[in-house]
Amino acid sequence: MIPRIDLAQLAAGDADAVAGMHKAATDVGFAKVHNTALDAKRVSAVIETYRSFFKLPEAEKSNCDMAKTGSNRGWGAAGSEQVDPDANPDYKQFFDAGLTLPDGDPRLSEPFYAPNCWPSNPPEFEAVIRQYYTDACAVAMDVLRGVARAVDLSAEVFEGAFDAPMALLRGNYYPARPAWAGSKDFGIATHTDYGCLTLLATDGSPGLEVRKRGGGWIPLSAAPGEFIINFGEMMEFWSDGLVRATPHRVVGGNDERISVPLFFNPAYDTNVAPEGADRMIKAGEHLAARYNETYVHLQKP
Ligand SMILES: O=C(O)CCC(=O)C(=O)O
Ligand SMILES: [Fe+2]
Q1: Full domain range(s) for residue 266
Q2: Nearest CA to 110 among 249, 254, 283, 300?
Q3: Where is the Fe2OG dioxygenase domain (predicted)?
Q4: Residue nearest to atom 4 of ligand 1 (CA)
């Protein structure tokens, strides 16, 4: 069973909500979260904005092709990410956006704080996505505070670590599963997320599957207004293995599907080693290693 958590109740310390988050974090690695600052209407507008973009001709989308920029901002064509080395590159398309830094900020030359590429169509794209990025980061921070409370990590652990986050907002577009797809082809192949927390909105269509500890897969879906959350590798390091990064995938079906994960990653220099450990795991270095493995345009031949 995947816990379903009321975020306002979690923030207020409600015992059931705290217990639900404890189970989500330490057992299944996934939860559904509702009653957040982002309502169904806002999330639907974001999903439809991405949908309009993905429906554009490839030639227009390629103005923001990340393979041309060398960073991970902009459009990723089908086949541009390979999250499982034993599977083929994913057949999904996606669009990545990160923190918008002021012009002239020296961090703009660092890969994790690279400038965004905003398409000119649909015309509202930049405004809608930038506002959602900011608001979704605030919801993710609320969730993390609830996680700290639920698993007894000191609340200060996360404070300050997300002031200039390497958080990445992605729109995933899964077309209907292609007729040519074989056993090594996925919308997104089996993987764990790299960062701390993923706050995932979807258009409500099925497709996501979460790996069960004993084997097999649990299908999970959420309509706009309700979020799926899961934990990534950095959170597993940070909590010394207490919080679980659970593998998941999308095989894909007969209908197209849009999902919008916010990968809530801390600032580059954050040490995500367990508290009190005598080693250092720099968040930015972990992320760089994982990006270099999985973005096809960054892979070494
Ligand atoms: O589309 C989904 O539901 C999941 C996407 C996902 O796992 C990812 O983008 O990391
Ligand atoms: Fe994922």
Answers
A1: 4-298
A2: 283
A3: 163-266
A4: 208
**Beta-sheet strand order (sheet of 197-202):** 4-6, 30-34, 227-231, 197-202, 257-264, 168-174, 93-97, 74-76
Taking a 5 Å cut-off on Cβ, the residues next to ion ligand 2 are 193
Ligand 1 probe mutation, 259, 290, 294, most atoms within 8 A of CB: 259
Cβ–ligand 1 contact at 261 (below 6 Å): yes
List CB contacts of 142: < 8 A, sequence separation 6 or more.
Answer: 7, 11, 36, 37
CATH value at residue 263: 2.60.120.330
For ligand 1, atom 8, the nearest C-alpha belongs to: 261
- Quick check: CB of 250 below 6 Å from ligand 1? yes
The vertex-168 CA angle with 147 and 194, nearest 5°, equals 60
Reported as a single tens digit per residue, the pLDDT across 217-261 is: 999 999 999 999 999 999 999 999 999 999 999 999 999 999 999
Q: Which protein residue's CA is at the shortest distance from atom 10 of ligand 1?
A: 193
Longest Cα–Cα distance of the chain, Å, equals 53
Number of domains in the chain: 1
Tell whether ipTM is more than 0.90: yes
Per residue in 145-160, pLDDT (tens digit) is: 999 999 988 778 888 8
